[in-house]
Write a structure and sequence with these properties.
Layout: E1 17-22, H1 33-39, H2 41-48, H3 52-73, E2 74-84, E3 87-91, E4 94-98, H4 100-110, E5 113-122, E6 132-133, E7 141-142, E8 147-155, H5 164-172, H6 177-183, E9 187-188, H7 202-205, H8 212-222, E10 228-231, H9 238-245, E11 249-252, H10 260-294, E12 301-303, E13 308-310, E14 321-330, E15 333-340, H11 343-346, H12 354-358, E16 360-364, E17 367-371
Parallel strand pairs: 1-2, 1-10, 5-9, 10-11
Antiparallel strand pairs: 2-8, 3-4, 5-8, 6-7, 12-13, 14-15, 16-17
Bound molecules: S-adenosylmethionine (SAM).
Length: 372
């Protein structure tokens, strides 16, 4: 972790980062006004004068400096994922939408990144007062903003996996077929939380953290084990935790050093929550295979390391690992050791379900049979 502004990604070499997962402060969302004003007094002047479009542009100009740095540090073929929400705001009696997602797309495209199909993250809000405007009387009611975006970009041409070692890491980093079907949908509705052992401090409440599952999915969709993942707006350290849980290296920049304690607490509590999460992936996979068997569609392939059936050949090389320990190696640096999950040690894992433990796996003459 580096507690400094990401407008200069100090000590991050050119073309060194495989994946960026981040969520900046959102322009024109009031909770971030003070931060934008502190960095540039002109933002305050524009807001005071009710010049929304000017304030919006000045705020984005601050973020642009970070996007410019990403252009320098991301490798060719590397992926950048930006979680951002638009802002609907009334200034001087005028209500309007400030479209941050389109402003960020324009900037990154102008820097040479290619925009790939994006994800809409649909957030459920059940509050009856969520509707704005003239209530039931047309035409002055406004559509509620119930989603954010995960914008996805690639730098240059597709990544190549030239060496034998990288090809092997790529195979081990594959995800399950049914996860592919869910994760690669362009609307995410169903992000699971994970126990994070966090104190609900004021700092946490105003952190605007994204869920662990959001970062975990992106890390696993767009990088392989051993890669370097960067979050220039680290906040409570969610990206760092997702990268650690996924056997990736990570670097985070956070301008507000008061997040240090919360990040360190999260990393300390990560072993049990990450292992619980990985066990739940395995559980869900076994249940998925079980339901296919019931439906008369037994799996054709087998994940060698887990002795579990799978739908596609690309899953055969998957290797899942638990975190064995995490230790501090320098003031702001942590390192983890991992233990591979195998058919032998699944029985000893307290956090996998009985369905997984009791599944008997047999391979006969190239055919796999799973009995539950
Ligand atoms: C939306 S929050 C990120 C939340 C994070 N994804 C998480 O899960 O906790 C944005 C963070 O960026 C930080 N920040 C704002 N400007 C920054 C800058 N120039 N450099 C680094 N961090 C910055 C803020 O202090 C805030 O913690």
């Amino acid at each position: 972790m580096v507690y400094a502004s990401a407008t200069k990604l100090l000590n991050v070499p050119d073309s060194s980062v495989d994946l960026v997962v981040t969520s900046p402060p959102y322009p024109m969302i009031e909770m971030w006004d003070a931060d934008f004003c502190r960095a540039d007094e002109r933002v305050n002047t524009a807001l005071q004068a009710n010049e929304g479009a000017v304030a919006f542009e000045l705020m984005h100009t601050q973020l642009d400096e970070v996007w410019q740095e990403l252009e320098r540090v991301v490798k060719t073929g590397g992926i950048v994922c930006v979680n951002i929400g638009d802002a609907a705001r009334t200034l001087d009696g005028v209500f309007q939408l400030h479209s941050s997602h389109s402003r960020v797309i324009s900037k990154l495209v102008s820097l040479g990144f290619q925009n790939l199909p994006n994800i809409i993250w649909r957030k459920s809000t059940n509050a009856p007062n969520k509707f704005m405007g003239s209530g039931m009387l047309p035409p002055g009611a406004y559509v509620t903003l119930e989603h954010e975006y995960i914008l996805i970009f690639r730098k240059g041409s597709k990544r190549q996996f030239a060496s034998k070692e990288l090809k092997q890491l790529r195979r081990e980093s594959a995800y399950f077929w049914e996860e592919r079907n869910q994760w690669f949908s362009d609307v995410w509705l169903d992000l699971r939380g994970v126990r994070q052992g966090l104190n609900r401090t004021k700092l946490r409440a105003r952190s605007a953290a994204f869920p662990f599952e959001l970062a975990y999915r992106i890390v696993n969709m767009f990088s392989v084990k051993g890669d370097i993942v960067l979050d220039p707006f680290l906040g409570t350290g969610t990206t760092l935790c997702a990268a650690l849980a996924s056997e990736r290296n990570s670097i985070g920049f956070e301008i507000d050093a008061s997040f240090r304690q919360i990040i360190e607490e999260r990393v300390s509590a990560l072993k049990s929550s990450a292992n619980e999460y990985i066990a739940s992936r395995l559980d869900q996979h076994i249940r998925h295979i079980e339901s296919r068997i019931v439906d008369g569609k037994p799996p054709k392939f087998m994940i060698e390391s887990l002795g579990a059936g799978c739908v596609s050949r690309q899953e055969c090389g998957i290797v899942l690992c638990n975190i064995e320990d995490i230790r501090r190696t320098a003031a702001n640096t942590f390192e983890a050791n991992y233990k591979q999950i195998t058919t032998c040690n699944i029985q000893a894992m307290s956090n996998v379900s009985e369905a997984v433990k009791q599944s008997k796996r047999t391979v006969t003459g190239g055919q796999i049979r799973l009995d539950f």
